[in-house]
Design brief:
about 575 residues
């Protein structure tokens, strides 16, 4: 039995380690990129003028979602095999739950340790960056999450309401730790965990563990059944989203439209529901929670423009996570059994490679557009909810509407363009069907970024500032020229294979030239500086990343179809 319990733990951790490494790299490199973006928008500031605690809750939300996603990915890949082991359900459930807690603790400690090396000073734990309290709460949240996940295999409306109330009370208790003197007072770091708080978290974890074991036993025994009301609602919802309405007359569709509709109902609808609706609700909840803490009578503690920036940053971060989730769901839509060949219904469809790629590409950009629009709509609803809480007179007295509109335009543009670049280019890698291509590209990017960051930090800490600047400019030059040349090569190859139309190539060329001309026009109106070539290369690389999927996705699908 002990050997089989070790098998459960080993199987889970083996499927989690790669995603765990990528999660840590994403959090560290993402924070560095966000810092550079803030410097780009607001200009460089003194390190002492930036309070890291302002970003503490954004880090908690991002890291928790990322760590839980790592655990879910490992659980999805291992639970089917683990369920058949000759071992009791209590041992399997306990092994999965405690393995997840161990992974979360390790990832949190490693990430916070890297943050200490890159961002913080020696007084970080006591002054502005609490670790123990949030980590204990995250462990409890993982245990409660497993209980909820397994119990919802037998869903019911009362159960949904109960779990919603339970999570609401959990997060209310957690937020109240940062307001020991009441919500009317200022927010302070949760630097010290009292004995009462520790015992409370352990009791909740114990109850969640017992409930999770029981729920998993019901699943394994086949006793987990949804309520009749839930079954009826699910049938109604399925009919609604698939459009299977008996009164509607059937209209003959072309082969391309039939393929596009089949692909949409098979994978894209689920991606829109998760990446657009669920993450939109998450944006709304996070922003309204921040708005509920705002006190208009204490301007020295609550800055209205900072609250607006909190809305925008949370939307930006959740947009990036939603883009990764959409990519994961769409990546498997063209894969066959075992990912050894293309899905036969797609590979054998009587369409040319160009028509096949056009259908799948059209569904992909519609999915990205729908998710981005829903997330931006959630941001607008957040502002509407804030106005309902505080009243419209607060806007007239404190807001510079021009600055507010400019700020929202910048963040919304970054969120939408960044989501497109991330989703489309990652899908181009995944849709090749070659695992080694994805691993090589991701490994080179992540490994190169980590190596570059370490070498740059060593040079700067040793006083070699000129060498560090030369290294940064050299790496930037190599990276941008590689991306631009690879994009041009992909467009030429796709045109040679007749995978894209001539008018598509002409439109891409016109957009590229127009973007570069607009940038040069803007530069000429600014003060002439020595580093405008960096901005020119940066804009050219951005345009290349935006336009690259129009060529790389048809090439990837053609390569996958004929392997």
């Amino acid at each position: 039995m002990t050997h089989l319990l070790l098998v459960v733990t080993k199987t889970f951790t083996k499927r989690a380690w790669l995603a765990a490494v990528l999660a840590v790299c994403l959090l560290v490199l993402g924070s560095l990129s966000l810092r550079e973006l803030i410097y780009l928008l607001e200009g460089p500031t003194d390190s002492g003028s930036v309070n890291p605690f302002h970003f503490h809750f954004a880090f908690l939300a991002t890291s928790w979602v990322t760590f839980i996603a790592v655990c879910l990915q490992a659980l999805q890949g291992s639970q089917q095999m683990i369920r058949g082991l000759p071992i009791s359900s209590a041992r399997i459930a306990s092994g999965l739950m405690f393995s997840s807690v161990g992974v979360v603790v390790l990832l949190s400690l490693v990430t916070n340790g890297l943050y200490r090396l890159v961002f913080f000073d020696e007084h970080w734990l006591a002054d502005y960056w609490p670790v123990l309290g949030p980590l204990l709460f995250l462990c409890t949240l993982v245990m409660v999450g497993y209980h909820c996940f397994w119990s919802m295999h037998a869903p019911g409306f009362l159960k949904v309401a109960g779990w919603g109330m339970a999570f609401g009370l959990l997060f209310y208790w957690f937020v109240s730790r940062y307001y020991p003197h009441g919500f009317a007072k200022g927010v302070v770091p949760w630097s010290h965990v009292t004995l009462t708080e520790f015992v409370t978290l352990q009791l909740v974890s114990l109850v969640a563990w017992l409930g999770g074991v029981r729920a998993y036993s019901n699943i394994r025994n086949g006793a987990a059944m949804p309520s009749p009301q839930w079954d009826q609602t699910q049938l109604w919802w399925t009919a609604l989203i698939t459009g299977r309405i008996p009164e509607r007359m059937s209209v003959p569709l072309s082969r391309r439209m039939t393929l596009a509709r089949m692909h949409w109902s098979g994978s894209c609808q689920r991606a829109v529901i998760v990446g657009g609706i669920l993450f939109g609700v998450a944006v709304l909840i996070v922003n309204l929670a921040a708005a509920a803490m705002y006190d208009s009578s204490s301007p020295e503690l609550n800055n209205l423009l900072e609250l607006s920036e909190t809305f925008q940053v949370s939307t930006l971060v959740l947009s990036g996570i939603a883009a990764i989730g959409v990519t994961i769901m769409l990546a498997g839509s063209v894969a066959g059994t075992g990912n050894t060949e293309m899905n036969r219904s797609l590979a054998m469809t009587p369409l040319s490679d160009r028509e096949l790629s056009a259908s799948l590409f059209g569904n992909m950009w519609k999915t990205c557009l729908a998710c981005s629009v829903m997330l931006q709509l959630a941001l607008l609803l957040s502002y509407a909810g804030f106005l309902m809480m505080q009243g419209t007179e607060i806007v007239h007295s404190n807001y510079d509407m021009g600055e507010w509109l400019k700020q929202n335009l910048i963040y919304s543009s970054v969120a939408m363009i960044g989501s497109w670049i991330l989703t489309a280019n990652l899908l181009a890698l995944c849709w090749t069907g070659r695992q080694w291509v994805c691993n090589t590209v991701v490994g080179v990017v992540v490994g190169g970024s980590v190596t570059f960051m370490i070498i740059s930090q060593i040079l700067r800490s040793s006083g070699f500032y000129q060498a560090a600047q030369l290294l940064e400019k050299s790496v930037f030059l190599v990276m941008t020229l590689s991306i631009i040349s690879a994009t041009i090569g992909a467009w030429l190859d796709a045109g040679k294979r007749c995978l894209i139309r001539k008018r598509t190539r002409n439109a891409a060329l016109c957009c590229s030239i127009a973007g570069l001309v607009l940038f040069k026009t803007w530069v000429f109106r600014q003060t002439v500086g020595p580093d405008h070539w960096i901005g020119f290369l940066w804009i050219a690389t951005l345009i290349a990343l935006i336009l690259a999927p129009f060529a790389t996705i048809p090439l990837a699908l053609s390569w996958n179809r004929h392997r």
